Amino acid sequence: MTEEEISGVRRWLVDIARWRPSPAQFDAAAAFLPPHERPAIARFLKEDDRKRALVSRLLQYSLVRHVLRIPFRQINICRTPEGKPYLSNCSTFPNFNFNTSHQGDYVGIASELLCLVGLDIVSVSKPQGETTTEFISNFSSYLTDHEWDCIVRAGTPSEVLTEFYRHWCLKEAFVKAIGAGIGFELRRLEFHHEHWTNISIHVDGELSKKWRFWIFKLDEMHLICIYSQRASRGCCKQLQENTVQCKRCGGTITFYTGKSSRSFHFLDSGTAYTITGVASSVTGIRHS
């Protein structure tokens, strides 16, 4: 493999709202998965929930096949007690890890060869039957006093809701990166920012420089956050909201969510820290 191919860094995203399979097409896609994975999909009653579960698992197997060149039938994905998926039969790259998230219209996956990675997608949904303040009050115990003040002073109810979901997305992505599960106290994390620039994270009151993260607005209703540990010799820095520059070559890479892709094969350009598009179908997956 080339250096680019074995970088192990991938960011893939699928818009399931644009994929409307017939029952036969859905079953054909599910048939790519090992039999033990299928009951976890079938247990969902709603079609959209089944699609999210199916695409999440297809992304995991497709990513491992694409990055590590492991034959599809030999991939063995397990899950920790906290639910984080991992590859159990890869002695060549023992630190390779990936994380998935799905909510609303999107399913995503992120991977790293050496660093821990966490991914979270949130749908900015208006609360039903209660005000925005009443809704976010349900989560006040997970927020620090500083975060609560930032959220409630954000402006209009819509801006307050978006501010809350930004904080929530950041917290969830961090917990998923470390694989701590629901037992981690989210109030231990506190985020500081200047209009969502110069974002920093404090863990247990201490500024942490071990992590780098990106948060993006996919559309008017969805946010995505990606966390990864900083390598000992950092090679990237963030220039603006959706652009990353490589310190080694000076090249810039832009995150975007154009919707022209038609298969998983077009999701990845092989370049670090890139979402190259939003796929709307599950064609192109092969068992090779």
UniProtKB/TrEMBL annotation:
<dbReference type="GO" id="GO:0005829">
    <property type="term" value="C:cytosol"/>
</dbReference>
<protein>
    <recommendedName>
        <fullName>holo-[acyl-carrier-protein] synthase</fullName>
        <ecNumber>2.7.8.7</ecNumber>
    </recommendedName>
</protein>
<dbReference type="InterPro" id="IPR037143">
    <property type="entry name" value="4-PPantetheinyl_Trfase_dom_sf"/>
</dbReference>
<dbReference type="Pfam" id="PF01648">
    <property type="entry name" value="ACPS"/>
</dbReference>
<dbReference type="Pfam" id="PF22624">
    <property type="entry name" value="AASDHPPT_N"/>
</dbReference>
<dbReference type="InterPro" id="IPR050559">
    <property type="entry name" value="P-Pant_transferase_sf"/>
</dbReference>
<dbReference type="GO" id="GO:0000287">
    <property type="term" value="F:magnesium ion binding"/>
</dbReference>
<feature type="domain" description="4'-phosphopantetheinyl transferase N-terminal">
    <location>
        <begin position="18"/>
        <end position="112"/>
    </location>
</feature>
<dbReference type="InterPro" id="IPR008278">
    <property type="entry name" value="4-PPantetheinyl_Trfase_dom"/>
</dbReference>
<dbReference type="InterPro" id="IPR055066">
    <property type="entry name" value="AASDHPPT_N"/>
</dbReference>
<dbReference type="GO" id="GO:0008897">
    <property type="term" value="F:holo-[acyl-carrier-protein] synthase activity"/>
</dbReference>
<keyword id="KW-0808">Transferase</keyword>
<dbReference type="GO" id="GO:0019878">
    <property type="term" value="P:lysine biosynthetic process via aminoadipic acid"/>
</dbReference>
<feature type="domain" description="4'-phosphopantetheinyl transferase">
    <location>
        <begin position="117"/>
        <end position="219"/>
    </location>
</feature>
